[in-house]
Amino acid sequence: EDQVTQSPEALRLQEGESSSLNCSYTVSGLRGLFWYRQDPGKGPEFLFTLYSAGEEKEKERLKATLTKKESFLHITAPKPEDSATYLCAVQGLSRSNYKLTFGKGTLLTVNP
Amino acid sequence: EADIYQTPRYLVIGTGKKITLECSQTMGHDKMYWYQQDPGMELHLIHYSYGVNSTEKGDLSSESTVSRIRTEHFPLTLESARPSHTSQYLCASSEFGAGDEQYFGPGTRLTVT
Q: Do residues B58 and B36 lie in contact, with contact meaning Cβ atoms separated by under 8 Å?
Protein backbone atom coordinates (compact mmCIF):
# COMPACT_ATOMS: atom_id res chain seq x y z
CA GLU A 1 0.00 0.00 0.00
CA ASP A 2 1.29 3.44 -0.96
CA GLN A 3 2.05 5.74 1.97
CA VAL A 4 2.97 9.42 2.29
CA THR A 5 4.24 11.12 5.44
CA GLN A 6 4.80 14.86 5.54
CA SER A 7 6.86 16.74 8.11
CA PRO A 8 6.71 18.94 9.97
CA GLU A 9 2.94 19.12 10.51
CA ALA A 10 3.26 22.87 10.99
CA LEU A 11 6.04 25.37 10.34
CA ARG A 12 6.21 29.00 11.29
CA LEU A 13 8.78 31.22 9.57
CA GLN A 14 9.70 34.84 9.55
CA GLU A 15 9.53 36.60 6.21
CA GLY A 16 12.79 35.94 4.36
CA GLU A 17 13.68 32.88 6.46
CA SER A 18 14.28 29.99 4.05
CA SER A 19 13.36 26.41 4.97
CA SER A 20 12.29 23.04 3.58
CA LEU A 21 9.27 20.79 3.86
CA ASN A 22 9.67 17.02 3.71
CA CYS A 23 7.57 14.34 2.03
CA SER A 24 8.59 10.73 2.69
CA TYR A 25 6.89 8.12 0.59
CA THR A 26 6.59 4.37 0.12
CA VAL A 27 5.42 3.03 -3.22
CA SER A 28 6.08 -0.10 -5.22
CA GLY A 29 7.32 1.84 -8.24
CA LEU A 30 6.84 5.58 -8.51
CA ARG A 31 4.84 6.89 -11.41
CA GLY A 32 4.84 10.49 -10.18
CA LEU A 33 5.08 12.69 -7.08
CA PHE A 34 2.91 15.80 -6.91
CA TRP A 35 3.04 18.94 -4.79
CA TYR A 36 -0.05 21.06 -4.20
CA ARG A 37 -0.77 24.24 -2.30
CA GLN A 38 -4.08 24.56 -0.44
CA ASP A 39 -5.42 27.79 1.01
CA PRO A 40 -8.08 27.68 3.75
CA GLY A 41 -11.51 26.83 2.40
CA LYS A 42 -10.23 26.23 -1.14
CA GLY A 43 -9.29 23.30 -3.32
CA PRO A 44 -5.64 22.28 -3.78
CA GLU A 45 -3.68 24.18 -6.43
CA PHE A 46 -1.24 22.15 -8.52
CA LEU A 47 2.42 23.15 -8.17
CA PHE A 48 4.80 20.45 -9.46
CA THR A 49 5.11 16.91 -10.76
CA LEU A 50 8.36 14.97 -10.29
CA TYR A 51 8.92 11.65 -12.01
CA SER A 52 12.40 10.36 -11.20
CA ALA A 53 15.09 10.66 -8.55
CA GLY A 54 17.34 13.65 -9.10
CA GLU A 55 14.67 15.70 -10.81
CA GLU A 56 14.15 19.30 -9.68
CA LYS A 57 11.51 21.88 -10.56
CA GLU A 58 11.22 25.54 -9.63
CA LYS A 59 8.48 28.11 -9.50
CA GLU A 60 9.15 31.54 -8.06
CA ARG A 61 10.36 30.99 -4.47
CA LEU A 62 9.62 27.25 -4.50
CA LYS A 63 11.88 24.41 -5.59
CA ALA A 64 10.90 20.75 -5.42
CA THR A 65 13.45 17.94 -5.40
CA LEU A 66 13.08 14.16 -5.46
CA THR A 67 15.07 11.18 -4.19
CA LYS A 68 14.10 7.52 -4.18
CA LYS A 69 12.43 7.83 -0.77
CA GLU A 70 11.53 11.46 -0.25
CA SER A 71 10.86 14.83 -1.77
CA PHE A 72 11.66 18.26 -0.44
CA LEU A 73 9.90 21.53 -1.10
CA HIS A 74 12.42 24.29 -0.55
CA ILE A 75 11.07 27.77 0.12
CA THR A 76 13.56 30.57 -0.44
CA ALA A 77 13.00 33.96 1.20
CA PRO A 78 9.30 33.28 1.85
CA LYS A 79 6.69 36.03 1.93
CA PRO A 80 3.45 36.14 3.97
CA GLU A 81 1.49 35.24 0.84
CA ASP A 82 3.29 31.86 0.80
CA SER A 83 1.33 30.91 3.92
CA ALA A 84 -0.79 27.84 3.09
CA THR A 85 -0.95 24.09 3.57
CA TYR A 86 1.38 22.24 1.22
CA LEU A 87 0.27 18.77 0.18
CA CYS A 88 2.34 15.95 -1.26
CA ALA A 89 0.83 13.05 -3.20
CA VAL A 90 2.22 9.98 -4.96
CA GLN A 91 1.02 7.83 -7.79
CA GLY A 92 2.39 4.28 -7.70
CA LEU A 93 2.78 1.90 -10.59
CA SER A 94 1.18 -0.92 -8.64
CA ARG A 95 -2.18 0.82 -8.51
CA SER A 96 -4.50 1.92 -11.24
CA ASN A 97 -2.80 4.83 -12.88
CA TYR A 98 -5.33 7.45 -11.86
CA LYS A 99 -5.10 7.16 -8.08
CA LEU A 100 -3.16 9.56 -5.89
CA THR A 101 -2.25 8.91 -2.26
CA PHE A 102 -2.04 12.17 -0.30
CA GLY A 103 -0.19 13.12 2.86
CA LYS A 104 -1.80 15.21 5.59
CA GLY A 105 0.13 18.29 4.56
CA THR A 106 2.39 20.87 6.19
CA LEU A 107 0.75 24.08 7.41
CA LEU A 108 3.18 26.90 6.63
CA THR A 109 2.78 30.29 8.28
CA VAL A 110 5.06 33.15 7.22
CA ASN A 111 5.02 36.12 9.54
CA PRO A 112 5.83 39.64 8.25
CA GLU B 1 -5.67 28.34 -14.16
CA ALA B 2 -7.93 25.32 -14.09
CA ASP B 3 -11.58 25.80 -15.02
CA ILE B 4 -13.43 23.50 -12.68
CA TYR B 5 -16.48 24.62 -10.76
CA GLN B 6 -18.40 23.30 -7.80
CA THR B 7 -21.78 24.35 -6.45
CA PRO B 8 -22.89 25.03 -3.86
CA ARG B 9 -19.80 26.22 -2.02
CA TYR B 10 -21.49 25.79 1.35
CA LEU B 11 -24.52 23.70 2.29
CA VAL B 12 -26.22 23.19 5.64
CA ILE B 13 -28.97 20.59 5.49
CA GLY B 14 -31.01 18.45 7.83
CA THR B 15 -30.70 14.71 8.33
CA GLY B 16 -32.54 12.58 5.79
CA LYS B 17 -32.52 15.10 2.96
CA LYS B 18 -31.40 14.20 -0.54
CA ILE B 19 -28.60 16.39 -1.88
CA THR B 20 -26.65 16.71 -5.10
CA LEU B 21 -23.26 18.38 -5.27
CA GLU B 22 -22.46 19.74 -8.71
CA CYS B 23 -19.09 19.65 -10.45
CA SER B 24 -18.34 20.92 -13.94
CA GLN B 25 -15.13 21.42 -15.90
CA THR B 26 -14.56 23.20 -19.19
CA MET B 27 -11.17 21.70 -20.04
CA GLY B 28 -12.48 18.62 -21.83
CA HIS B 29 -10.74 16.32 -19.36
CA ASP B 30 -11.72 12.66 -19.56
CA LYS B 31 -10.93 11.75 -15.95
CA MET B 32 -12.83 13.20 -13.02
CA TYR B 33 -12.68 12.52 -9.30
CA TRP B 34 -14.46 13.17 -6.02
CA TYR B 35 -12.46 13.44 -2.80
CA GLN B 36 -13.52 13.85 0.80
CA GLN B 37 -11.35 15.91 3.15
CA ASP B 38 -11.79 16.49 6.89
CA PRO B 39 -9.84 19.27 8.68
CA GLY B 40 -6.17 18.40 9.09
CA MET B 41 -6.60 15.08 7.30
CA GLU B 42 -5.65 13.60 3.96
CA LEU B 43 -7.78 13.76 0.86
CA HIS B 44 -9.53 10.43 0.34
CA LEU B 45 -10.80 9.36 -3.08
CA ILE B 46 -14.47 8.34 -2.98
CA HIS B 47 -15.40 8.17 -6.70
CA TYR B 48 -13.74 8.49 -10.06
CA SER B 49 -14.60 8.34 -13.73
CA TYR B 50 -12.55 7.60 -16.83
CA GLY B 51 -15.13 9.09 -19.14
CA VAL B 52 -18.81 9.18 -20.07
CA ASN B 53 -20.77 6.28 -18.56
CA SER B 54 -17.70 5.13 -16.61
CA THR B 55 -17.77 5.43 -12.80
CA GLU B 56 -16.01 3.50 -10.05
CA LYS B 57 -15.80 3.66 -6.27
CA GLY B 58 -12.60 4.92 -4.72
CA ASP B 59 -10.63 3.88 -1.67
CA LEU B 60 -12.90 5.38 0.96
CA SER B 61 -16.27 3.75 1.35
CA SER B 62 -19.01 6.26 0.71
CA GLU B 63 -22.79 6.12 0.69
CA SER B 64 -22.85 8.65 -2.12
CA THR B 65 -23.37 7.88 -5.80
CA VAL B 66 -22.13 9.60 -8.95
CA SER B 67 -23.05 9.77 -12.63
CA ARG B 68 -21.17 10.81 -15.77
CA ILE B 69 -23.60 11.45 -18.59
CA ARG B 70 -21.60 14.31 -20.10
CA THR B 71 -17.82 14.75 -20.21
CA GLU B 72 -17.94 18.07 -18.43
CA HIS B 73 -20.34 17.16 -15.63
CA PHE B 74 -19.80 14.82 -12.64
CA PRO B 75 -22.46 15.27 -9.93
CA LEU B 76 -22.39 13.50 -6.57
CA THR B 77 -25.63 12.54 -4.82
CA LEU B 78 -26.46 11.59 -1.25
CA GLU B 79 -29.91 10.00 -1.08
CA SER B 80 -30.29 10.52 2.68
CA ALA B 81 -27.84 12.84 4.38
CA ARG B 82 -26.54 12.00 7.86
CA PRO B 83 -24.33 13.97 10.30
CA SER B 84 -21.47 11.55 9.47
CA HIS B 85 -21.52 12.99 5.93
CA THR B 86 -20.40 16.37 7.23
CA SER B 87 -17.13 17.10 5.41
CA GLN B 88 -15.44 19.02 2.60
CA TYR B 89 -16.07 17.50 -0.84
CA LEU B 90 -13.54 18.27 -3.57
CA CYS B 91 -13.95 17.57 -7.28
CA ALA B 92 -10.95 17.23 -9.60
CA SER B 93 -10.20 16.43 -13.21
CA SER B 94 -7.20 15.37 -15.28
CA GLU B 95 -6.40 14.81 -18.91
CA PHE B 96 -6.19 11.20 -20.02
CA GLY B 97 -2.69 10.22 -21.06
CA ALA B 98 -1.02 13.36 -19.71
CA GLY B 99 1.10 13.72 -16.58
CA ASP B 100 -1.92 12.91 -14.41
CA GLU B 101 -1.87 16.29 -12.73
CA GLN B 102 -5.25 16.66 -11.14
CA TYR B 103 -6.88 20.09 -11.09
CA PHE B 104 -9.26 20.79 -8.24
CA GLY B 105 -12.41 22.80 -7.83
CA PRO B 106 -12.99 25.11 -4.85
CA GLY B 107 -14.87 22.45 -2.87
CA THR B 108 -18.26 22.16 -1.18
CA ARG B 109 -18.39 22.40 2.60
CA LEU B 110 -21.33 20.18 3.66
CA THR B 111 -22.81 20.29 7.15
CA VAL B 112 -25.60 17.86 8.04
CA THR B 113 -27.50 18.75 11.20
A: no
- Give φ, ψ of B112 to 5 degrees: -110, 120
Residue-wise pLDDT tens digits, B14-51: 999 999 999 999 999 999 999 999 988 899 999 999 89
Mean of per-residue pLDDT scores for chain B: 92
CB-count burial class (<10 Å; 0-12, 13-18, 19+) for B58: middle
- For chain A, say whether B102 makes contact (Cβ under 8 Å): yes
Chains A and B: how many Cβ contacts under 8 Å? Answer: 57
B69/chain A closest Cα distance in angstroms: 20
d(CA A50, CA A67): 10
Q: How near does any CA of chain B get to the CA of A48, in Å? A: 9
Using CA atoms, how far apart are residues B109 and B104, in angstroms rounded to an integer? Answer: 14
CB contact under 8 A, B100 and A32: yes
Gap between the Cα atoms of A72 and A66, Å rounded: 7
**Is some CB atom of chain A closer than 8 A to the CB atom of B109?**
yes
Residues of chain A with pLDDT under 50: none
Per residue in A4-36, pLDDT (tens digit) is 999 999 999 999 999 999 999 998 888 899 999
